Amino acid sequence: MTAPTGADVAAFLGAADDTELTALADEHVAVVTTMVRAYTRGGGFAAGTPNDELAAVITTATARLVANPEQVGYSVGSVRQDAGFKGFSLAETFVLNRYRRRSA
């Protein structure tokens, strides 16, 4: 797999034709990729490109950021969206930990 792009994230969200969303996702992909690379200390990356598993984490984490770009909490009825990026989800962390290099 190649490195995820904003277009990949937009397609994941079912909005492949939304150029505004794609542009926003492009910005977020770069940030999330940097966080993933830091978390794994470069494990799972070859020539700067993440493997398929890490690319999936980047895509899903970016999708969550793009869904609430203002990072402001809000409630609609009984549904509540917390403010800000609170880290990787449990499933994402399981994948990331496979590649994480821990210091001795």
Q: Would you kindly provide a written description of the structure presented here, covering whatever features stand out?
A:
This protein is mostly helical. The chain has one domain. The chain contains 4 helices and 4 strands; from the N terminus they run ααββαββα. The strands form 2 sheets. The chain has a two-stranded antiparallel sheet with strand order 1-2. The protein has a two-stranded antiparallel ribbon with strand order 3-4. The model has no long low-confidence stretch (mean pLDDT 88).
What is the element layout, followed by pairings?
Elements: H1 6-12, H2 19-40, E1 45-46, E2 49-50, H3 52-67, E3 74-76, E4 79-81, H4 90-99
Antiparallel strand pairs: 1-2, 3-4
Helix pairs in contact: 1-2, 1-3, 2-3
Task: Write down how many β-strands occur, each being a DSSP E stretch of 2 or more residues.
Answer: 4
Strand order of the biggest β-sheet: 1-2
Q: What is the approximate shape? A: globular
Tell me what portion of residues adopts beta-strand conformation. 5-15%
Mean pLDDT: 88
Tally of alpha and pi helices = 4
Derived structural class: mainly alpha
